[in-house]
Model the fold of this input.
Amino acid sequence: MTTELGIIEGFYGPLWQWEERRALVSQLAPAGYRFYLYAPKADAYLRRRWHEPHPPQQAEQLKAFAAYCRQQGMRFGVGLSPYQVFNDFDDKARQALLEKLAFFDSLGIGDLAILFDDMSSDLPDLAVRQAEIVHWVREHTAAGRLTICPSYYSDDPVLDRVFGARPRDYLESLGRLLDPSVGVFWTGEEVCSREISAGHLQRVSDQLGRKPVLWDNYPVNDGERMSSHLHLRGFTGRPSTIGEHLTAHAINPALQPVLTAIPALTLADSYRQGDRYQYMQSARDAAIRVLGPDLGRQIMDDVLTLQDAGLGRLGDEKKASLATIYGQYDHPGARELLAWLRGDYRVTDEVVQTQ
Done:
């Protein structure tokens, strides 16, 4: 497997606990995952309050987690969303950004991502401004790898409806302006792409003048609709041959840190096995590895209910039955499923709009 795999903790919704992050790293590092990008939308100090320092306790926890990732053979990085900074990149913004970058350097980050996703702008020279900011960051960070998430990170017209029409030739302009060493995230033809083809990636590479870093929005399940479903099946629609068209392939995980390891492990299988890959068999094997044989088989037997039907189509009687079944298991994966049944992982439109 030559395609570099990584995790981007980039979802809306509740923050994970640090021990949950460490457990996921310990599951995925041996499978070939090589980097972890910390960028949860709920960490306000990376997004709407980015110009403020992280509280001391959280800063120490971040530093400890960065060290743990390195011990496990993973590079650790941070994704910063300097909210709307491209509208006014003045001296005050530069000073705040300089202080934030110095903090990241103190963590010993290997990767840094500047994320301009999910922000509104009507600037016709948006690509010019964003490239200027990224190049300024490149001069002031010790991170070995720098990546940008464009404001328009997919062909999906939903981005234009929500954030305004994309400037003409935005991708081409950004690719032309950015230094070749800067990576660019891309999610595919849709924000949550059903399929990612080599032909599509080649077209995007031609526009950007470089191979994209795939930000794969599976198995993520944030948002009003998706948070009522558990994404457990193995990866499909990503043939191993797309690897030659990518700089790296990073997944945005599900809200459930234990259960997300099941599909994550299948992606590693897909690249390793190539044409021999079987997505359901891989998911069954992964579920047993993550959850043990009894719970792993049980949860895959219920995948139609948990992933396809979702909470909205489960009556009280069915929920009670599932709660009885999974309440018998003393395992964090079962506890995640029970919490999902209670609605603890629901992510409303209000949460998305305010994080």
Notes: The mean pLDDT is 95. The first helix runs from residue 18 to 28.
